Amino acid sequence: MVNDERLAFPEDFTWGTATASFQVEGAAYEDGRGDSIWDVYCRQPGRIADGSNGDVACDQYHRYPEDIALMKQMGVGAYRLSVAWPRIVPQAGGAINQAGLDHYRRVLDMLLENGIKPVVTLYHWDLPQYLQEAGGWANRDTAQRYADYAAVLAKALGDRVQTWTTLNEPWCSAYLGYGNGGHAPGICDYGQALAAVHHLNLAHGLGAQAIRAELGDRARISVTLNLQVNRADSDDPADLAAKTRADLFANEVWLGPMLAGTYDQRIHDAAEGLTDWSFVRDGDLEQIHQPLDVLGINYYSTNHVGGRSGAGSERNPMPAQDMVETLPPQGPLTAMGWNQEPQGLTDLLMEVSGRFPKLDLMITENGSAWEDQVSLDSSFPGGKGVHDPQRVAYLEEHLRAVARAIHAGARVTGYFAWSLLDNFEWALGYTKRFGLIRVDYDTQERIWKDSGLRYAQIIHDRAV
C-alpha cells in the first residue's frame, strides 16, 4: 500500500520548470526579431484584458543569467523553454537570423554549464506574422515552413538540446486561434480551425523527420498536448455522448494521427457541415505518425460536460452543433476560475499509459494562478517574498497525484512546474500569476514565493 504521508519519486526522475518565449523574453524589437501573430494581436484594441503586450514581459532575453541562477538555486535538473520562430526566420523568404541563433546558443550553453538539461519547444504559439498573412495554420504550406525552421534549429543547436518538443498545446493554436478567436490570430471559423488541426499534426510529423534527418539517433523527440480530462455530468446517454465528443475533438484529433496514424471516423462524422476534410491528402497520416521518445502532458484541471446544446466556451470552444456544454466548475477555484482535481491527473496518466504502455510520459506543465501579495519577511532570500499557501497545496497535491500514478505503473519520467516566473498570460495579459518566482514588472525584480522554496525542498527530498 502506498503511504500517503510520503510518496517517493524514482532517483532518475526529471525535475524541471518551464516558460515560453513570448511570455517571458521581451526584447521584441531587438537583434532582428520579426513580428509574431501575438505581437499583432496585442495591438488590436480589446484583445488583451489589461491592454498589455509582450514587448518587455519578464525581460528574460537580457536577464537569463539571473533566471538560470534561480533555477540552480531551486535545484531543477531541466528547463523547458521555447524558441521564438520570428527570431530565427524573421522575414518571408526564409533568410536565417544569426543573432537569434546566437542568443539561444548562449542560453543553452549557460544552462548546460549549470547542470540543467534544455528541453526545447520549437513552437509555443508565436507564429511569424508573415506566415499568418499567407493563411497561417489553415494553410498547408505553414507545415512545410515549420519543417524548414526545425531543420535550422536542429543543425544549429542539436549538440546542446536534450529533448526537442515539436509543438506546445496545438489544441489552443487551432481552436482558440482559429475557432473562437480568443487567442491570436483571432479568427472565428471552425472550418479553418479543423484545417489548422491537421496542419499542426502535419507540422509535428514533418518537424520530427527534419530533426532526425539532421541528428539521427541523437534526436530525442517529444510533443506536448493539453489532453483534457472530461467528466460526464451523469450516466445519461446524452451526457456520455457529450464526453465522447469532447474527447474526440480535444484528445483524439492529436493522439490518433500522432501515435496511431489515423483519424477516428467519429471525428469526421461529428464535424459534418464544418469541413469536407479536403486538406487531408494521401500520405499525410504516414508523415504525421512518427516515433516519439516521450509524450508531454500539460494538466491544470478537469472539465465536467453535459449533453445540451449551447455555445462553446474557452475550455470547450467547439460550436453549438457539437452538443457539448461545459458545466460551471465546482469547488475551490484558482484565480483562473479553474477547478482543482488532482485525481484527474492520476486518471489521465493511467489511461494514457494503459493505451501506450511503451511510451514515456512527462508532465510538461502543471501549476496554478493565485492573487499574490508581497510580504517583508527575513526568512526569504532578499528579505521579502510571497506567502502562497494555495499554490503550495496545489503543487503538493498534484505531485502526489503523479507519484500515485507512478506507483501504480504509469511510465512518468518527469515533472515541469508551470511556471518559473510570473509572465504574460496570453489574452489575460499580466493579470494572472503562475510563477514560483514573482516578477515585479516595474523593476523586473525576481522575488521568491513559498511555492518556489517548497518545490526546491521536494526536489531535494525526491518525495512529497
From TrEMBL:
Hydrolase found in the keyword field: yes
Reaction equations catalysed: Hydrolysis of terminal, non-reducing beta-D-glucosyl residues with release of beta-D-glucose
GO CC annotations on file: cytosol
Sites where the protein binds substrate: 23, 124, 168, 300, 418, 425-426
Biological processes, Gene Ontology terms: cellulose catabolic process
EC identifiers of the protein: 3.2.1.21
A GO molecular-function descriptor: beta-glucosidase activity
Keywords tagged on the record: Carbohydrate metabolism, Cellulose degradation, Glycosidase, Hydrolase, Polysaccharide degradation
Enzyme's top EC category: hydrolase
Stretches that traverse the bilayer: none
List of catalytic residues: 169 (proton donor), 365 (nucleophile)
Residue ranges of coiled coil: none
NCBIfam families on file: BGL
Family membership: Belongs to the glycosyl hydrolase 1 family.
The protein's name: Beta-glucosidase
Native organism: Bifidobacterium apousia
